[in-house]
Amino acid sequence: MNYASVIKLKTQFNKSFELGNLDDAVKIGDSIIKGYKKSALINTNKYADDLFDIAYANDEAGMFSKAEKLYQESARIVKKINGKDISYSHRINNLAIVYSKSGRYEEALRLFRESYRLRFNLLGDKNTLTVEGLYNLGNAYRDIDDYERAVYY
Q: Each residue of 31-85: pLDDT tens digit?
């Protein structure tokens, strides 16, 4: 399989996801990953972006364990290539959401904190992504019944 095949699959993936056919999107996502591995393009930002999208489809389909692994791999690649940039922040934020959905609140809190700090340092306190980070952090504290901190954030 070559990269042109991956691009065709990505189009099918996007269409399935947009139509709400999550099972199909997840299956196509698996094929996209196999295609990348055969084309040796697995240490690229494009691969990390596609892993992020596939992780999101798995997350939406309730496949949290698989989504977790894909978000982790996407974050690892982005961090290796770009460092802890805003793209990395998005990945760990979504990974934290998966942890929260899975009842792993302490792990979620750790990543929400890191994501918020990155967003604050990179974008400032008035950026909508930074505000979103505060919102997520507040919700994470609410999830562990720490209402004082939840209200603070």
A: 999 999 988 888 899 999 999 999 999 999 999 999 999 999 999 999 999 999 9
**Phi, psi (deg, nearest 5) at residue 36:** -60, -45
Tokens of 144: 């562990």
Interatomic CA distance for residues 153 and 135, integer angstroms: 7
The predicted-structure confidence for 13-25, as pLDDT tens digits, reads as follows: 999 999 999 999 9
- Taking the C-alpha atoms of residue 115 and residue 96, their distance in angstroms, rounded to an integer, is 9
116: closest CA among 127, 106, 105?
A: 127
C-alpha span between 153 and 143 (Å, rounded):
13
Smallest CA-to-CA distance from 56 within 35, 39, 71, 78 is with: 71
Its pTM stands at 0.91
The three state secondary structure string of 83-142 is CCCHHHHHHHHHHHHHHHHCCCHHHHHHHHHHHHHHHHHHHCCCCHHHHHHHHHHHHHHH
Q: Which residues contact 34 (CB under 8 A, 6 or more apart)?
A: 1
